[in-house]
Design a protein that fits this description.
Blueprint: H1 2-24, E1 39-43, H2 54-60, E2 81-86, E3 97-102, H3 111-122, E4 126-129, H4 133-141, E5 144-148, H5 154-160, H6 164-167, E6 171-175, H7 185-188, E7 196-199, H8 202-216, E8 223-228, H9 232-238, H10 241-255, E9 262-267, H11 276-293, E10 300-307, H12 313-325, E11 332-336, H13 342-347, E12 350-353, H14 364-371, E13 376-379, E14 394-397, H15 404-416, H16 418-435, H17 438-461
Parallel strand pairs: 2-3, 2-5, 3-4, 5-6, 6-7, 7-8, 9-10, 9-12, 10-11, 12-13, 13-14
Antiparallel strand pairs: 1-8
């Protein structure tokens, strides 16, 4: 009886520890810190597609857990007033006085938005309406105005009106999108006249350069490619073996899978463009190959994190119907969309990045997975090709239906070779440590901000 009681207490303590870890890091992987998040930035065209150059040299000294504290190269921003404008709310942090306004905000209460607003307020970020005199006054006073996403361009004419020409010289346009409908004159007609554009990958920067010229007949301003990077919070979890183990056990228990089972996960908002349907087809094909060849592998499972039946009812219905028809319901797990991705990265064995068409602009989840020493199976498109080294940190496959069987074979490769999975995961981790951390961002983004501020000041004086 005493033994049972002791086991029960230990189990409860483990669950409490898991919940504490979950609470502590619940937002860490969703944050996009403007001044503090990790970025690997390089001027477009000045270096090659993988961001080789000075930031690689700086990153080489960062490998390992012990680092020498360096002066913050963004110290000069503390005296600046920065206005960030987004078409929807996402999280921003501070390294200066920051004001955030949201152009499109749901009328109904939203728990995620409320949590993010509280997080920003706690970090000293002011949050107020995108419309009204306060927004105009702040834009006119600000040292820097950051338009965060392409659609935020509508705010300029909609709110600033006749003040637009006064603000444009100090606008840094931060673009994350690759979809064709963003190339609309209503959104980006002022793009050629801003101080600079910041884009997450070389592939996206090239796409915007060609598309704006061909479709709209306008030129891009001075453009900087800014690779995203992992926050310190995320890396602390990834490098803490105890936290990883607790989270892994907790999530696997909630999914009903065993510790020895193999989990292949796709972590994106469920939509056709993210390729969950093709991933599930490839997963099913991989099971067929394993059965036909009588390969000895652990029980395999597919995890789809990002489910939202309200937003994608038709598509999700198709996914679940396919799973049911192929009789793999016991091997496929749907998880609701969440800001808390670290526990799932700790729980899985392989990340699948299956974004379709032009791929991801960058793919933050990819470097987050690599930080957790996970191999990545990604589409050979967009920013993923600037992150994943094919055959070294993972495998790339074509986008579209023609990529289903190559992805299936890559799943089988990793399922049957545990050493390959481990080696690729470790090499992915080293790649993250070399170029996708916060201190990489600090040095490179400082150069971008200094140049944009200098250009804005020069324009103001003239």
């Amino acid at each position: 009886m005493a033994k049972q009681s002791s086991s029960w207490i230990m189990a409860m303590q483990k669950k409490r520890w898991a919940l504490m870890v979950l609470a502590l890091f619940s937002l860490s992987t969703a944050m996009v810190f403007f001044m503090r998040t990790a970025f690997d930035s390089c001027s477009a065209g000045a270096e090659n597609g993988f961001g080789e150059g000075k930031e690689r040299e700086a990153g080489a000294n960062s490998v390992g857990r012990v680092q020498i504290e360096e002066p913050n190269p963004l110290e000069f921003m503390k005296s600046k007033l920065v206005l960030l404008v987004s078409h929807e709310l996402s999280l921003s942090g501070v390294g200066s006085e920051v004001v955030w306004i949201t152009n499109q905000k749901p009328v109904e209460s939203d728990e995620v938005i409320h949590s993010l607003e509280r997080k920003m307020l706690d970090r000293g970020v002011q949050v107020f309406s995108a419309k009204g005199q306060k927004a105009i006054d702040t834009a006119l006073k600000a040292d820097l105005v950051v338009l965060n996403t392409a659609v935020a361009g509508k705010w300029l004419d909609g709110v600033l009106k006749e003040n637009v020409p006064r603000v444009l010289p100090k606008v840094l346009w931060w673009i994350h999108e690759m979809r064709g409908h963003y190339f609309n004159g209503e959104y980006v007609k002022h793009l050629p006249f801003v101080a600079g554009a910041m884009i997450d990958s070389h592939a996206t920067a090239e796409y915007w350069k060609n598309r704006t010229h061909e479709r709209l007949g306008i030129a891009m301003p001075k453009t900087y490619v800014v690779h995203l990077g992992n926050s310190k919070d995320l890396m602390e979890v990834a490098e803490d073996s105890i936290s990883r183990r607790v989270l892994r056990e907790h999530v696997r228990e909630s999914l009903g899978v065993r510790s020895e089972d193999l989990l292949f996960a796709i972590i994106n908002s469920v939509s056709r463009g993210k390729g969950q349907d093709l991933f599930l087809r490839a997963f099913h094909e991989s099971l067929q190959v394993i059965q036909a060849k009588k390969l000895q592998v652990p029980s395999m499972h597919a995890v789809v994190v990002g489910s939202d039946m309200n937003a994608q009812t038709k598509f999700e219905t198709e996914l679940r119907k396919f799973v049911s028809e192929q009789k793999i319901k016991d091997r496929v797990h749907f998880v609701n969309k969440t800001l808390t991705v670290a526990p799932y990265l700790a729980a899985i064995d392989v990340l699948v990045q299956n974004s379709q068409a032009r791929g991801e602009c960058f793919g933050r989840i990819t470097i987050e997975a690599m930080g957790f020493q996970l191999p990545v199976l990604g589409t050979a498109a967009g920013g993923t090709m600037e992150i994943v080294v094919n055959g070294t940190t993972g495998f790339l496959h074509p986008a579209g239906k023609e990529g289903v069987m190559p992805l299936a074979h890559n799943i089988v490769k990793l399922a049957t070779h545990v050493e390959r999975r481990m080696t690729m995961g470790k090499q992915g981790y080293e790649r993250v440590k070399e170029r996708f951390l916060e201190h990489h961002m600090a040095h490179r983004i400082a150069l971008v901000l200094k140049e944009v501020l200098r250009r804005a000041k020069s324009s103001g004086n003239s």
